[in-house]
Design a protein that fits this description.
Chain lengths: ~350, ~90, ~375
């Protein structure tokens, strides 16, 4: 009874009187904004999928295109910076759509007063990230706003790619028994940013996990082809939000095993201290994939064979019950439902 | 846990590699020192964790059920004895 | 992680779970209340209900300080935030609690200076860093948190800081427990006693529950093993027809409590003659007010606040859920008008509130086992 009540999608109009930080957090408020306001007004088939990238047919191929804004504060943090996030993030959105990225563009909104050296460092970071992934940045735009706005800089990147012919991805493709794979430890990025803000009296040896997951995505398609049902890079809202979105409104659900989820001690410690759930914390260099059971073994081996994929694990599976939700099972038979992120415990993470 | 000599009310603690500074004003500072574990709440150490009590408790919990198993084993013997009685 | 992992050992947990099954009389129904919000959260977080036999029921008590805070007090805090040159600081879970005029988070979005802090000392630091502003710390919590506020007040006095004050909403747990025991609809067999509050108060304050009302009390830790062991001890007491206070959280709680904390509280606070608890009504001698020698750091002295009493919407059944009479999904608004995104009652806002915990964790009552 409870399950049905909660699953009734409230696709009403977006009626919120003002924009709050929660609308950008990637959880329920964001969903309300996108589904209640933006999607209905822009209405078109490519948008309706609401995937990480929009896919549409062109000249006999499937083209994927995506856009992402980056407003992370602070601009530089252990393991990366805004520029690197912006490039990797857009490449990742294309990668999880089964696409080979072809080109990127970048729009920069700069605050008057930003140090020239800081901007230079970001441009260098973007160039390096693009070069590592083998994707050129072919153009963009630059604007400057008055001092006091843009917190140093905002970056929006746009990417376009060609979807691999073998890729057949989508939430509707999952089946009971499919396995859920994860490339590595979660929570590194979000917690690193939180500590880098210096508002808490916490220190730890942690860095953001920002990187391109193109290699992983390509390896999965090479190994399993159409056995790869769905992929996602779990950014804002974390693994919990990504998996909830996968099965929302579906007749299938996801069960994950808590003790299988790779987690660094420092992230675990910080989450215990702050009362946060690592499943809700943003990642910038991980890949979640749902793979058919026949291909799962080979797929996992393929991930582990790649540099940076050593901790890839199978964390769970698709099940028939409970439908439409994510459940986490612990080592002693206890279970708990894990909902989409509500509110925004860690604002301006990416 | 490390004590900071300059600010006697502060100490540095480490949880799984995450370090933070906390106020130890609520602890009787004669009885906490480096290597101790403490309970922290909103930036203050509230209590020291007593290793002896913790180990005691775990030992008790491990032994739980052993009494019961022993009793069942004994019952098992007597049942078998009854069965064999003509 | 030391002192955490050992108390989450799956084998030991299954051990205790089996013992609980053996100790529970199948002909009896057991209703055990856990008073503390942290325990409510832990029970759901670790799926402990899956490990208990069906005739052992856990009832969630009123130990969530955010949940019992009346909306009128939130409005008072918002009124302070709206004052020129005021900075209001509060803990994370206070930020989204609704008053009638909005929440602290909404006020921040509107441009008022509202900041989240992790410790009252952070608020003090802000006051030192911004001498032209007045920093108000919106203090909530039971006896666990009150000593931290007390030490902060003492420090403010030692620093001679003038631009800092505390809006004090600290409440004490014992009167709430008594109110529940005196309630006519109460049918409880035993109590899982508060863990962190007892670190400060010690175990003596709960002796009246055993002595006057004949109900067992076991002070419990927060790990799965702690809670299960405490439930087992309650069942064993009931089987023996006994009612005493036991300290399961021995590794942290001392029978006499934390003397420096109690002394600091005695110096900086006094008891209010009465205070309103959301859902429970007025309870006498149940809340703390800043003592006269520290009036300079009392927000209620430094600011004019509306002090209006706001009643809950009639449809919201927070009071009955708080007393353990109703389970969260039995409230008519649960999951519909009242949910974590749009909480009508505070039990849905705080992550320790019975309704929020149920909504987040227990939506799948027939979830499959591993």
């Amino acid at each position: 009874m409870i399950v049905e009540t909660l699953e009734t999608p409230r696709r009403g109009r977006f009626g919120d009187p003002q924009i709050e930080m929660a609308h950008g957090a990637g959880g329920k408020a964001t969903r309300r904004l996108v589904e209640g306001l933006i999607a209905p007004l822009f209405a078109n088939p490519a948008l309706a999928e609401l995937g990480d990238a929009a896919v549409f047919p062109l000249a006999g191929a499937r083209i994927a295109t995506t856009a992402d804004g980056y407003v992370v504060k602070p601009l530089r943090f252990p393991g990366g910076s805004i520029g690197e996030l912006a490039v990797n993030g857009t490449i990742n959105d294309l990668a999880v759509s089964g696409a080979r990225p072809v080109a990127l563009m970048a729009s920069l909104i700069l605050e008057a007063g930003l140090a020239g050296a800081a901007l230079e460092a970001e441009i260098e970071a973007m160039a390096a990230a693009a070069s590592r992934a083998g994707v050129p940045i072919v153009g963009g735009d630059t604007k400057v706003v008055e001092h006091g706005f843009a917190d140093g800089m905002y970056v929006t990147t746009f990417g376009v790619g060609i979807v691999d012919e073998r890729a057949l991805l989508g939430p509707d493709r999952i089946r009971a028994g499919d396995q859920v794979l994860l490339t590595g430890p979660i929570g590194d990025h979000g917690i690193t940013i939180l500590l880098a803000r210096g508002e808490l009296d916490l220190e730890a040896d942690l860095e953001s996990d920002t990187r391109s997951v193109l290699g992983f995505a390509a390896a999965l398609i090479d190994t399993a082809g159409a056995g790869v049902r769905w992929m996602r890079d779990p950014t804002r809202g974390g693994v919990a939000t990504a998996l909830n979105e996968l099965v929302r409104g579906s007749r299938l659900g996801v069960a994950i095993f808590e003790e299988r989820i790779p987690l660094r001690d420092e992230v675990r410690g910080a989450c215990e201290i702050l009362g946060l759930d690592p499943l809700h914390i943003a990642n910038e260099g991980q890949l979640l994939a749902v793979i058919s059971p026949q291909n799962a073994g080979a797929a996992l081996a393929a991930l582990r064979a790649l540099p940076g994929g050593e901790r890839a694990t199978c964390i769970g599976e698709i099940r028939e019950r409970p439908a439409g939700m994510l459940v986490a099972l612990n080592a002693y038979g206890g279970s708990r439902a894990v909902d989409v992120l509500v509110g925004d415990p860690l604002p301006r993470i990416c | 846990m490390e004590l900071d000599a300059e600010q006697p009310m502060l100490a540095k603690v480490d949880v799984a590699g995450v370090r933070r500074q906390i106020n130890i004003g609520l602890l009787d500072d004669r009885c906490v020192g480096p290597g101790d574990w403490v309970l922290i709440h909103v930036g203050f150490a509230m209590s020291k964790i007593e290793e002896v009590q913790a180990q005691d408790q775990l030992r008790m919990l491990r032994a739980l059920g052993e009494d019961q198993l022993a009793i069942e084993e004994v019952r098992g013997y007597s049942f078998a004895a009854e069965e064999r009685a003509p | 992680m030391k002192y955490v992992d050992e108390f989450r050992d799956p084998e030991l947990i299954l051990n205790v779970s089996r013992e609980i099954e053996r100790a529970a009389d199948p002909a009896r129904r057991y209703r055990i209340m856990e008073v503390c919000g942290g325990h409510t959260h832990a029970i759901y977080r670790y799926g402990l209900k899956d490990l208990l036999p069906p005739n052992v029921e856990l009832i969630h008590g009123p130990g969530c300080p955010v949940c019992v805070l009346p909306m009128g007090r939130v409005d008072d805090g918002l009124a302070i935030a709206a004052q020129p040159n005021a900075i209001v600081t509060a803990f994370g879970d206070m930020m989204r609690v609704p008053g009638t005029k909005g929440t602290f988070l909404e006020y921040r979005a509107r441009g008022y200076d509202v900041r989240m802090v992790y410790s009252p000392l952070d608020a003090l630091r802000i006051a030192q860093a911004e001498p032209d502003k007045h920093v108000c710390f919106f203090a909530i919590g039971f006896e666990t948190t009150a000593p931290s506020t007390a030490l902060t007040l003492l420090r403010a006095r030692d620093l001679g800081l003038d631009n800092f004050s505390v809006f004090c909403n600290h409440v004490t747990i014992v009167p709430a427990i008594r109110a529940i025991l005196d309630s006519p609809d109460m049918r409880l067999d035993g109590f899982v006693g508060p863990g962190h509050v007892s670190t400060v108060t010690g175990c003596r304050p709960y002796e009246f529950v055993a002595r006057e009302y004949g109900k067992p009390v076991v002070i419990s830790g927060f790990e799965p093993l702690d809670l299960l062991e405490s439930i087992l001890r309650i069942l064993r007491q009931l089987a023996r027809g006994e009612a005493i206070v036991e300290n399961q959280y021995r590794r942290i709680v001392a029978w006499d409590g934390n003397l420096p904390a109690l002394r600091a509280m005695a110096e900086t606070f006094e008891l209010r003659p009465y205070f309103e608890w959301r859902g429970l009504g007025f309870i006498s001698q149940s809340a703390l007010k800043i003592a006269p020698p520290f009036a300079r750091w009392d927000s209620e002295v430094r600011f004019e606040v509306p002090g209006v009493r706001v009643t809950d919407p009639k449809a919201a059944q927070c009071g009955e859920v708080l007393k353990g009479v109703l389970k969260p999904p039995q409230c008519k608004l649960f999951g519909k008008e009242c949910n974590p995104e749009h909480p009508i009652g505070a039990l849905m806002v705080s992550s320790e509130g019975a309704c929020a915990a149920y909504y987040r964790y227990a939506q799948a009552p027939d979830a499959v086992t591993a």
